[in-house]
Design brief:
232 residues; 7 strands; Rossmann fold; single chain; seven-stranded mixed beta sheet; binds S-adenosylmethionine
Length: 232
């Protein structure tokens, strides 16, 4: 993807080259190719999701942050765990489907465990009822990780633990967002989850699609897994 100084036009072209409906396997190989430029490009995109999600977790988390176990799903290069570390969290495990992204996250030295996994196609390779915080940022959207994956995230979360999720709210992703919200609402209805906060953000990240201008919206969801629950 070139070694000249990246511009926003380069970033737009890269993102638009990923077909929205190509499915998880193609999306992960897209990230394999993008990995080396990812952090430089998302800075140009003004990608705020890791900051918004980790601010929300740090504000609401009750407990000892330093010993809390965090599962960073679709961890990419490690931006979310890096921000959580700045907030006092220290015990990170990560999962991602892209080997190139995993190589970069391994290089950060942040993670005690890193597992490859094609989410939605392979089972999440982590123990149940274990993590004080599970977080998935930038990967819950059409063509990436299916909404049904939330059930696996719930299983991995400790009873009383927190689940933090983000999604985009631009037109292409509204159906996915509605499906995600329906599932979360149903899990609250079954008393498996309780809503902590949902924040709709107007300036989520810069728009890249032809028919969009300025910034697209997005949302951060923070839920708590019920204490009295039997996952296994
Ligand atoms: C936009 S990046 C977000 C990375 C990181 N969470 C962040 O906010 O910077 C999306 C990540 O999700 C991963 N991903 C997307 N779909 C996936 C899938 N079905 N299974 C595993 N990983 C997936 C990609 O490899 C990539 O690292």
């Amino acid at each position: 993807m070139g070694d000249h100084k990246r511009t926003f036009t380069d970033v737009k072209n890269v993102i638009l080259s990923a077909h929205e409906d190509s499915g998880p396997r193609d999306k992960v190989s897209f990230y394999d190719k993008w990995a080396e430029q990812y952090e430089e490009d998302v800075a140009l995109l003004d990608y705020r999701a890791p900051t918004l999600a980790t601010d929300c977790i740090a504000e609401h988390f009750k407990g000892e942050k330093g010993s809390a176990k965090v599962l960073d799903v679709a961890c990419g290069t490690g931006l979310v765990s890096l921000k959580l570390k700045e907030k006092g969290f220290q015990c990170f495990s990560g999962v991602d489907g892209s080997e190139a992204m995993l190589k970069l996250s391994r290089g950060t030295g942040l993670y005690q465990n890193l597992w490859p996994c094609l989410l939605g196609l392979e089972a999440l390779p982590v123990p149940v009822d274990t993590y004080d915080v599970t977080v998935i940022v930038g990967a819950l959207s059409v063509g990436q990780v299916p909404v049904s994956f939330i059930e696996e995230l719930w299983l991995a979360t400790k009873p009383g633990g927190y689940m933090c999720m983000t999604t985009r709210a631009n037109p292409d992703n509204l159906q996915y967002k509605a499906e995600l919200e329906r599932l979360l609402e149903a899990m609250c209805g079954d008393a498996r989850l309780a809503q902590v906060c949902v924040t709709e953000v107007q300036d989520w990240e810069r728009a890249v699609q032809e028919h969009e201008t300025g910034y697209i919206p997005g949302a951060v969801y923070l839920y708590r897994k019920a204490l009295a629950t039997q996952s296994s």
